[in-house]
Amino acid sequence: MDPAQRRQLGAHYTGEADVLNLLRALVLDELEAELGRLAQLHEPARRQGLAELHARLAALRLLDPACGCGDFLLVAYRELRRLELEIIRSLADPHPYAVSIEQCYGIEIQAAPAEATRASLAALEQQLDREHAELLGSPLPARATPTTPTIRCANALRLDWADLLPAAACSHVIGNPPFIGKQARTGAQVDDMQIVFAAARGTSALDYACAWFKKAADYVAGTEVEVAFVSTNSITQGEQPGLLWPLLDRDGATTITFAHRSFAWRGQANVHVVIIGFAARARRPRRIYEVGDVRVVESINPYLVAGPHETLAKRRDPLDPHTPRASFGNMPNDGGHLLLSEAERLELIHADPRAAAFIRPFISARQYLAGQPRWCLWLIDASQAQLQSCPAIMRRVAQVHAHRRASTRPATRKLAATPSNFGEIRQPTSDYVLIPRHPSARRPRVPLGYFSPDHIIADSCIAIAGASKYHFGVLSSTMHDAWLRQIGGRIKSDLRYSIELVYNNFPWPPAPSPDHRAAIERRAADLLELRQAHQLMSLAALYTPATMPAALAHAHRELDAAVDQAYGVDTSMSSSERVALLFALRR
């Protein structure tokens, strides 16, 4: 497929390993366990049980509503035939084939892939018939009639799935809905989502794949049909869980039955994905799969951690009323004329030494991480007489005035009345924690900063004014990092730090003792001192795994231990267990 067309349709091939991960959790592990249990029985219970299991396999009906070229249906059919072969071998008689491609149903928007799915399934059935006959040593009775899968070429979001396969006859809905983010949707795709979600508020912020979740939830409502989709992990982060799941769970019945937490996808798209199983009537224990491990839990929430089925809403204030508030930094809106490089700072001071009194360090996210000095003219307290006495500064102020007057935005033109000031001023008046708004997800830790108020913070960062080293320590810990990575969402490959979702919803240590607070402050101070000792290295280099000094890594571990003690937990907790704990602390 043409790459541009593939991106527009979100059509990406799902590798067999990922398909099998979905199918095993959804149905194969249960069938194989039942086969193993039956093998331990004595006759005639064993034989009767195998015959019943064979009939159960033949009764399964699988629907892939975004089937592409049929990779999910092909692997599922092959695995059902494998189980059937084991049953026939165990029965040791010429038991006829019961599993067929007639059990496979699919919907595909393009004609060529839909036809490829039909042809591939037919070819696979013929191939497996021959191979299994050879393995059994003799041909089995021929199929009574030719078999064909039911593959419909249609827009799955505008088709009533029950017209293809009534939900009462379906066993499982499987697949990989298109990977298309909210910014990449076409007008027709936006219309698709409006139809599916009945123009519900907030759904414009959802990924295109979410429409398949909604269609599937409506399709299986009131049944025991279980759904399992591969999806980008974005639907489990940021604001999307809080928008999507209340629409899927209006009657409180939709339950997440299993989840493979975020992992690097082995397909053609450079993304991380999750596998989510859900049903209206859950009949099995809930399971969370992560890095080769599986845990049985009481319930799974939409962030794919253990806990009640709840989502976070944006909050205007921190969860703990005693926690300092966060805000965005200052926005210059100056055309660059109030900002100075190191060379421009020196040139300005050389032209007029009096200008030095109005020059402050300027901290943007990029400059902060790269360690490149940058400065700004901070004239908020300068009198008109002081400004008039410094022509070099006045020339820059005049350039700001001209830049704002030339803007097409009324709000910017209005700012021309105060050209000596930043466009938006939110500068802390006390020490503050600095958090980059879009830190890299590739670093093992997000390096936060701690500054005095004479450092002017840019709007590419978040400031927590009045924060102590205790607050800096908790926010620099693995506990907060796990919360950020799960709740914060993504912008391209970077994390998205949201004040209203991440910071204001973050549960701080409950009632930490003075000793706990002192230990965290001490470890936080040690961490800042170590950074200062390595000030010739940028933070970007300091927090790259290959170049991170051992002493700095040790300091972070010591800080983590102090924070974990305040939470009353063991440092060996996994990231998902930490998020589950934090959700529990909210209740």
From TrEMBL:
Keywords: Methyltransferase, Transferase. Residues 47-289 form the MmeI-like DNA-methyltransferase domain. One of its GO terms (molecular function) is site-specific DNA-methyltransferase (adenine-specific) activity. Its EC number is 2.1.1.72. InterPro entries: MmeI_C, MmeI_Mtase, MmeI_TRD, N4_N6_ade-DNA_methylase, SAM-dependent_MTases_sf. One of its GO terms (biological process) is methylation. Residues 308-510 form the MmeI-like target recognition domain. Residues 514-585 form the MmeI-like C-terminal domain. It catalyses: a 2'-deoxyadenosine in DNA + S-adenosyl-L-methionine = an N(6)-methyl-2'-deoxyadenosine in DNA + S-adenosyl-L-homocysteine + H(+). It holds the Pfam family MmeI_Mtase. The keyword Ribosomal protein does not apply. This is site-specific DNA-methyltransferase (adenine-specific). It comes from Enhygromyxa salina.
